[in-house]
């Protein structure tokens, strides 16, 4: 039986990583609004604590904590005997991520390594530690990973980021395969362009008008759009959903010429440019 959305997560305890900003902060707010008690983790400890204070001021239960997910010891600490997650963990939203764009021929190795370290290895550490904790507590649980539409849609200049998110999407599918026997579900959300700190630069100088015009719903994502999908996957309304990679992108992946383009008749040139620079907006 489905409960009312307002109380769907009453009594549940959730961890959200990358919760200081953007999609993670909106997700923490949404899970709290649906009744969950939330631990917000982020490399930006002050930011996580600030969002937690806002949630508490609004009547929710939340704690902000520091965690650089590329450090396995800091990830382990999230579940230590001193942690509010010690005795209960129903929901883990492994959301923290990082990316930079640049031509494949020029990607510096440190950028490639950091992209994989934060997005793949860091998210693996969070998911493995959360799953081990859920298994030891014996109550099952729901793990939701923030992948990207870039996991399924090749985006020029995003080779590192798209490869990392594709790896995550497959990791989630295998997690669902192995963890089902413990009543742990594992799913991924694949956001399209969502207006957060991560996309500020891309959406400047006409980028916003372009991405809106190229999205079937005529707008970019808002962090709250992604948070709503995460809340669905986290709760019992998704009790029979595991191993899913859910696009939350306003249909943009179904119709996507990509963010960067070039004239392929020009040979041996680095002439990639934002498509909005080649595109002139007509009247809305
Ligand atoms: N914004 C988009 O268009 C978009 C699209 C697809 C996927 N995503 C994914 O959504 C997730 C959230 O991104 P966002 O758009 O809200 O961006 P954001 O920059 O607002 O938030 C990312 C958060 O992750 C945190 N973080 C970065 N490295 C970390 C680390 N090593 N350990 C812990 N926390 C760390 C940051 O401090 C920040 O609070 C990311 O995984 C991102 O890849 C975003």
From TrEMBL:
<comment type="similarity">
    <text>Belongs to the short-chain dehydrogenases/reductases (SDR) family.</text>
</comment>
<dbReference type="InterPro" id="IPR057326">
    <property type="entry name" value="KR_dom"/>
</dbReference>
<protein>
    <submittedName>
        <fullName>SDR family oxidoreductase</fullName>
    </submittedName>
</protein>
<feature type="domain" description="Ketoreductase">
    <location>
        <begin position="12"/>
        <end position="196"/>
    </location>
</feature>
<keyword id="KW-0560">Oxidoreductase</keyword>
<dbReference type="GO" id="GO:0016491">
    <property type="term" value="F:oxidoreductase activity"/>
</dbReference>
<dbReference type="InterPro" id="IPR036291">
    <property type="entry name" value="NAD(P)-bd_dom_sf"/>
</dbReference>
<dbReference type="InterPro" id="IPR002347">
    <property type="entry name" value="SDR_fam"/>
</dbReference>
<dbReference type="Pfam" id="PF13561">
    <property type="entry name" value="adh_short_C2"/>
</dbReference>
<dbReference type="InterPro" id="IPR020904">
    <property type="entry name" value="Sc_DH/Rdtase_CS"/>
</dbReference>
């Amino acid at each position: 039986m489905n409960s009312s959305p307002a109380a769907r997560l009453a009594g549940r305890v959730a961890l959200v990583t990358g919760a200081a900003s953007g999609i993670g902060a909106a997700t923490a707010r949404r899970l709290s609004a649906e009744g969950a008690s939330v631990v917000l983790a982020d490399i930006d400890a002050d930011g996580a604590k600030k969002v937690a204070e806002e949630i508490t001021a609004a009547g929710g239960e939340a704690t902000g904590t520091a965690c650089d997910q590329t450090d396995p010891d800091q990830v382990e600490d999230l579940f230590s005997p001193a942690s509010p997650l010690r005795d209960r963990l129903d929901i883990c939203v492994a959301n923290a991520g990082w990316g930079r764009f640049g031509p494949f021929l020029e990607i510096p190795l440190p950028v490639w390594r950091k992209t994989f370290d934060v997005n793949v290895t860091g998210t693996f550490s969070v998911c493995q530690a959360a799953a081990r904790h859920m298994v030891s507590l014996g109550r099952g649980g729901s793990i939701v990973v923030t992948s990207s539409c870039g996991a399924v849609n090749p985006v020029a200049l995003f080779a590192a980021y798209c490869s990392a998110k594709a790896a995550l999407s497959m990791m989630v599918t295998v997690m669902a395969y192995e963890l089902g026997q413990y009543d742990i579900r594992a799913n991924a959300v694949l956001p399209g362009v969502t207006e957060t700190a991560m996309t500020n630069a891309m959406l400047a100088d006409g980028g916003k008008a372009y991405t809106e015009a190229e999205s079937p719903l005529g707008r970019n994502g808002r962090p709250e759009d992604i948070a709503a999908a995460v809340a669905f996957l986290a709760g019992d309304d998704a009790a029979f959903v595991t191993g899913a990679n859910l696009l939350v992108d306003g249909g943009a992946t179904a119709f996507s010429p990509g963010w960067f383009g070039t004239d392929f008749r020009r040979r041996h040139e680095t002439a990639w440019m934002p498509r909005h620079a080649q595109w002139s907006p007509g009247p809305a």
